[in-house]
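Service request form, structural biology core

Requester: graduate student, group of Dr. S.
Request type: structure prediction, single chain
Budget code: on file
Notes: please return the result as structure tokens.

Sequence provided:
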Amino acid sequence: MLEIRSRRGADDTALTTLSQQGQALNITTDGPGAQVTYAVGGQIVQTFDADDLGEKDLADEPDIRQALRWAQSFDIEAQEWAEYAKSTALSLAEAVTGMEIDDSWVTEGWAAVQLLPKPRPAAHAPVPVPYADMRQLAERNIQVRTFLENPGVEQITAMKHLLARIAVTTADLSHPLVEEAMSALENQARPQRVERLRDELKALAQEFFQQAGEGPWPAGATPYTEPAMDTLVRQGDATLAVEAALDDTDWSSSYQRCSRKTRIVRLGKQEYLIMETLDIVYKHICKMTV
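Core staff response, request fulfilled:
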């Protein structure tokens, strides 16, 4: 649904309802600026004032960085918002919807137009990828491409394994127990061994956190000011990511825990992109199994 010069769709409830089986985009262009709201699958995934994206003072705000990154995935660069916020918002609408927008959309009283209705995803239907860099990742990474092309609950274990490996590598975590757990993930260990490993991993994570809290740091030290403390905290979180990857009692909650613990290890750009892509696959699988 593409709507311009109207506030009916600017309401979050309207957009989430309209996007239940697809996507909805609202651009309100009253005045010189533009408010952009985008929903997919019943959830608001982007909302921002186009003028804010051109403000240098706001460039480091998390929501602004996320919105700029989303726009850049459609080849719209940050400086364009500073120069022509309203027209840039319309260019973004063209890129998102694949529909050409001319002056009449802004000057005439158009009604809402519905685009691309989408049914509930069929079992193992390929996952639609919203960002250009994710599509490029899939071309380079055969494992990620497999997840995108063949989504299903049976992929969750391998997805968690990949997240855990990323967390361990990023945190520079080397420990015999972690190595044993990663081997158990690869070789589908017996339930009794998995339970033992999970308990021991939880205890190991607490050791890391305790060392971080009790280390010989100066008063007021934090992980952001003490690299050694930061390493211990990250290794504790990475250990819990491995523990979550081993948890097969509930595929959905265990994936969420694994993803959350991997995320806070503070990944590099490429690793973060992989994690974001896997999270999209996870959400797609959830929709398939409702």
